[in-house]
Design a protein that fits this description.
Radius of gyration: 18 Å
Order of helices and strands: EHHHHHEHEEHEHEHEH
CATH topology: Rossmann fold
CATH architecture: 3-Layer(aba) Sandwich
Number of domains: 1
CATH superfamily: HAD superfamily/HAD-like
Number of helices: 10
Length: 278
């Protein structure tokens, strides 16, 4: 059984027209939570959702973290988020994400993941984030992390508002298909590429490359990693990116509400769980 490790072995880039890439899942692989649900309180502050919606988001976050992201849970989360955002103004969502990005996401980024991203870039590889979360959130996070591009879920937009329907769902086999298509257009040699994820739902993505890695894996992915002798990485250190790279100043408009709201929501969940256990 392979021993858990904090860092993967990143071999040098192979020149001569044979391009390589490293594909990273986002939630619980690069950051410690669901990137979409982490913005529930800023969305409330921006007038998009109610306090009840914030608490439902926080509960979904708790289930996601404790239970693992199996197919049924991901489907419930997809339905919840698509219904929740129906009617939202796209420009408002983009503004809220831009204003609160550093305050909400920055403290959740794993130091080990940042180091891996840097190592792959130094080795000459493109870094691509492949996430089930929405592109409005994944895109800015990818830019903040210095990713070369992102593949993410896209919501349907009509007249500047979300309809609640999904145009493209980046999930499971769809992620693997997107990686193969990108490899075809960009000239990546998938046998020489790397992939990182925490969830068994990303098994097709991991199997699509020559160097798959399980990061903080759920039970089923750990079994698959052990059976296939894939490296198992353990990421445990959230880091403030400002200490690792030069970032533009964060906008403070909704920062205090965002941070305070997440703490309150998390506390409410803890109280409910204690009551149920009594």
């Amino acid at each position: 059984m392979p021993a858990p490790a904090h860092h993967a072995s990143v071999r040098p880039y192979r020149w001569g027209g044979r391009r390589e890439a490293a594909f990273f899942d986002l939630d619980k692989t690069i950051i410690a939570k669901s990137s979409t649900l982490a913005f529930s309180k800023p969305f409330q502050a921006g007038g998009l959702i109610s306090r009840r919606g914030v608490l439902r988001s926080a509960y979904a976050q708790f289930v996601y973290l404790v239970g693992g992201a199996d197919h049924d849970q991901m489907e419930k989360m997809r339905q919840f988020m698509s219904q929740l955002c129906a009617g939202w103004n796209v420009a408002t969502v983009q503004e809220i994400v831009a204003e609160t990005l550093h305050n909400v996401v920055d403290p959740l980024v794993y130091d080990e993941a940042v180091s891996l991203i840097e190592e792959h870039h130094l080795a000459g590889r493109d870094v691509i984030i492949v996430s089930t979360s929405g592109s409005e959130v994944v895109g800015p996070i990818g830019e903040m992390l210095g990713a070369d591009r992102v593949i993410a879920t896209r919501m349907e937009i009509v007249d500047g508002r979300y309809t609640g329907e999904i145009d493209y769902y980046a999930y499971s086999e769809t992620k693997a298909t997107a990686i193969r298509e990108l490899a075809e257009t960009e000239g990546y040699v998938l046998a020489n590429c790397y992939a990182y994820s925490d969830s068994v739902t990303d098994l097709p993505m991991l199997e699509a490359v020559g160097h798959p890695h399980a990061v903080n894996p759920d039970k089923d992915l750990r079994k698959a990693a052990v059976a296939n002798e894939w490296p198992v990485l353990v990421f445990t250190k959230p880091v403030t990116l400002g200490r690792r790279m030069k970032l533009p100043p964060a906008k403070p408009t909704l920062a205090a509400l965002a941070v305070g709201g997440l703490v309150v929501a998390g506390g409410a969940i803890a109280v409910n769980l204690r009551k149920r256990s009594l």
